[in-house]
Amino acid sequence: MSNLSVAKRISQTQTQVVLPLMKKLAPQLILPIVGILVFLLCWHVIAGKIDTSLGKFPGPVQVYEQFNGLVAAHVKEQERAAAFYERQEKRNAAKLEKNPDAKVKIRPYTGKPTFFSQIVTSLYTAMTGFALASLIAIPLGIVCGLSSHMYSAANPLIQVFKPVSPLAWLPLVTMLVSALYVSDDPLLSKSFLTSAITVALCCLWPTLVNTIVGVSSIPQDLQNVSRVLRLKPLTHVRRIVLPASIPMIFTGLRLSLATGWMVLIAAEMLAQNPGLGKFIWDEFQNGSSQSLSRIMVAVLVIGLIGFALDRLMLAVQRLVSWDKSAVLR
Amino acid sequence: MSIASHLELSGVGISFPTDKGLFCALQNVNLKINKGEFVSLIGHSGCGKSTVLNIIAGLYQASTGGVILDGKEVNEPGPERAVVFQNHSLLPWLSCYQNVELAVKQVFGGKKSKAEIREWILHNLELVHMTHALDKRPDEISGGMKQRVGIARALAMQPKVLLMDEPFGALDALTRAHLQDSLMEIHATLGNTVIMITHDVDEAVLLSDRIVMMSNGPAASIGDILDVPLARPRDRLALAEDPAYNKCRQQVLQFLYQRQQRPAA
User: Fold this and answer.
1) Is the residue at A70 inside a domain?
2) Which residue on chain B is closest to A229 by alpha carbon?
3) Is the pLDDT of residue B1 over 60?
4) Are residues A34 and A120 in the same domain?
5) Is B79 within 8 Å of chain A by CB?
6) Distance CA A109, CA A113 (A)
7) Is residue A140 domain-shared with residue A264, that is, in the same domain?
């Protein structure tokens, strides 16, 4: 057997192994990577050709640099905070040594919020608004789904308020919070409440509408089972209505969460609530040569977090739903 | 004073509002059923068989007349008139055991202990030969098995009357025969009063003590009632040769295809 034919056979077996593997991986792994690479390339080429008053439009490389810069700033700020607390502790310890009855206190660090602490604030605000909306929307949706009278009463209001933009609500919510939430030592800051309530007002609707549809489309036969068994209203809701409408409720919750996350950024920009929205606004006002890159970092991070939140809801749905065979996307 | 019958329908009629005014679906249905009797309702589709059953179940309210069960008027659904639905109607998120459990806990909640409840659930699933699939969910078992669990759930309510709405209509012929045998066995053991809707002439004759044949709608009513004078237990193979069986069959077919022409479908 010549060397050549051996080499040929090896390459044949290689293609036999590699090709099917490629075929299997292509849709899940390779194609998305190709898509991302093409996007990055287009972005890089096009960005280089655009001049703005703040310099060239940032390409992927500049954005990556700024991301690293933001990470570094965050680490530095954390070190500063740690040092600040350490100094206080030392000072307090010294004070206590001199006089054991001395009153000591730790002052909170009031440094500038970093990009990452802004993300945490944003997530916290969005989750508060989303939880608030779900707590209202799911019970209300069940009631409207069960009773056609309630539905007729609520439907016009739902249809009118559903399409309202968050920016329209914001001034009203701001004034309401200022007027009603009066406290000398507020537990929650007003700007936080304003943003959270605005988010809640906007992401109420998908959950509400989907819950109504889910509850009102429970098969008549299952309702008859409940009637024959004379299930009490609350048992009926718990044993029949909730399990039957879980898929629709989750469809609504996922839409709501996406809406809420989207609305939050706009609300934070206007309410000046610390968060990603304010970060973007501040960078825009700042107008340095790095601002556009930093805003682009924020844009990408907002997108990634939105995606992660949706996956999280999907995982929760898988956990809660009885129908494990259903295809969830 | 004569002994009042177990279940009595007197002058039952029902109308539904439609765009063209009231539609009278049923009119003047009178029927007396004795305890332990097996009665079939047969008729062409759309003749109001299911409506009669739903009125007895209390799921519909009769517009005229009424239903009396053991001296009490029926005006809402309840577990003493358990229904076996055509498409099983098991809750898809509960296992077979849990489906029956829901009914048993609802009916015997305060009256039986935990152990007794469990025993009663298993006993009823045993009656329909389904103890091998206790933890399976409805989508994991066959159509016939689902219907068996549906029957177990209804039986577990210990109903005065068992109402069956075309219980075997969606099953293939072999499965149907198995379930008919199971049903005869259960009826012989428990002596329930059963009212069953069917399209199947053989099924009606095989299972019933009386066959109620319904005339066509609108304003459908009872056309004729046929007594089935066959001794129990009945065996489907032996009956095939039985002249009395064939005579009954003949009479039902005659009613359906000569006296009540099939409505233009």
Assistant:
1) no
2) B79
3) no
4) no
5) yes
6) 10
7) yes
Chain B residues with CB-CB distance to A319 below 8 A: none
Q: How far apart are CA A84 and CA A208, in angstroms?
A: 47
Q: Is the pLDDT of residue A4 over 80?
A: no
A274 and A125 in a single domain? The answer is yes
Residue A109's contacts (CB-CB under 8 Å, 6 or more residues apart) are A80, A81, A84, A85
**B22 - beta bridge partners?**
B17
Domain contains A63? no
Name the closest residue on chain B to residue A222, using Cα atoms. B89
- B81 interfaces chain A, CB cutoff of 8 Å: yes
Are A231 and B106 inside 8 Å of each other by CB? Answer: yes
Nearest CA distance, A253 vs chain B (angstrom):
21
Question: Across-strand partners of B72?
Answer: B69
Residue A55 included in any domain: no
Residue A130 and residue A265 in one domain? yes
In terms of residue numbers, what domain contains A177? Answer: 111-320
CATH number of residue A256's parent domain: 1.10.3720.10
Read off the pLDDT band of A329 (50, 70, 90): low
Task: Give the residue among A207, A117, A126 at the shortest CA–CA distance from A166.
Answer: A126
- Span B122-148, pLDDT tens digits: 999 998 889 999 999 999 999 899 999
Q: Which of A221, A235, A239 sits opposite B87 (nearest CB)?
A: A221
According to DSSP, the β-strands at B7-18 and B64-69 are antiparallel
Same domain assignment for residues A119 and A38: no
Q: Are B14 and B51 within 8 A, CB to CB? A: yes
Smallest CA-to-CA distance from A139 within A129, A150, A149 is with A150
Helices (H), chain A: 3-25, 31-47, 60-98, 115-146, 148-161, 166-180, 190-216, 220-228, 233-236, 242-271, 276-286, 291-320
Count of CB atoms situated within 10 Å of the CB of A84: 16
Residues of A in contact with B58 (CB under 8 A): 227
Query: The pTM is what?
Result: 0.82
**Domain B7-80+159-259: assigned CATH number:** 3.40.50.300
DSSP code at position A163: T
Strands B38-42 and B210-214: parallel
How confident is the model over A114-131, as a mean pLDDT? 91
Distances (CA, A) of A198 to A120, A160, A321: 18, 16, 30
B21: its two tokens: 């005014």
- Count of domains in chain A? 2
**A148 and A33 share a domain?**
no
Q: How far is CA A167 from CA A64, A124, A128, A236, in A?
A: 32, 20, 18, 40
The average confidence (pLDDT) of chain B is 90
Where do the domains of chain B lie?
7-80+159-259, 93-154
- SS3 of A298, please? helix
Q: Which of A224, A230, A323 sits opposite B79 (nearest CB)?
A: A230
Q: Other CB atoms closer than 10 Å to residue A284's CB: what's the count?
A: 14
Question: Does A228 sit within 8 Å of B102, measured CB to CB?
Answer: no
Note whether A160 and A267 are same-domain residues: yes
Q: Which element (helix H / strand E) includes B226?
A: strand B222-227
The answer to whether position A81 is within a domain reads no
**Gap from A228 CA to chain B (nearest CA, Å):** 5
Same domain, yes or no, for A28 and A138?
no
